[in-house]
Amino acid sequence: MYKATVRWMIRRNITRLNDGDLAPTLGMFADDAVLCFPGDNSWSNQHRPTTKGRDAFATHRGRREIEEFLDRYVATGMQMEVDDILVNGPPWSMRAAVRVHHWVPGDEGQDRYANRAVLFVKSRWGKLRFQEDYEDTERVAAFDALSKS
Fold first, then answer.
1. How many CB atoms lie within 10 A of CB 51?
2. Is pTM beyond 0.90 here?
3. Cβ atoms within 10 A of the Cβ of 52, count?
4. Could you tell me if 108 and 78 are in contact, meaning their C-beta atoms sit under 8 angstroms apart?
5. Separation between Cα atoms, residue 145 and residue 149, nearest integer Å
6. What are the tens digits of pLDDT across the range 78-87?
7. Could you give the CA distance from residue 67 to residue 6 in angstroms, rounded to a whole number?
8. Domains, the chain, ranges and CATH?
9. Residue range 67-71: average pLDDT?
């Protein structure tokens, strides 16, 4: 039952993001949560230059920075569809992986941006503590270039 509830909440929050409402998603993050966004692009460098290394680099620290990331996400018109959700662990140490495809609609049915991603999260008692996104960063950089033109 618990895992089904987690999957339902994730799907509901993504639907709300698609509708331009980031409040339910933001509300899931703990005050000191961390978001790690890959690559060398304007999304990962939104608050500080990315440091490359063996460990995940926290590109966004705390709810304020994560809110700015989500604001930007919604402002682009990005849409996301869930392909699969895997949930593991008890409520005090839950992990989930969400496989999605996401895109920004363009003119005449052509997407301005399209990518696939896996969002990996860790939570404790219903609050997200950590999120790391895995996606094709070359597509993200190409979207940056398109957005500047």
1. 9
2. yes
3. 10
4. no
5. 7
6. 999 999 999 9
7. 21
8. 2-148 (3.10.450.50)
9. 97
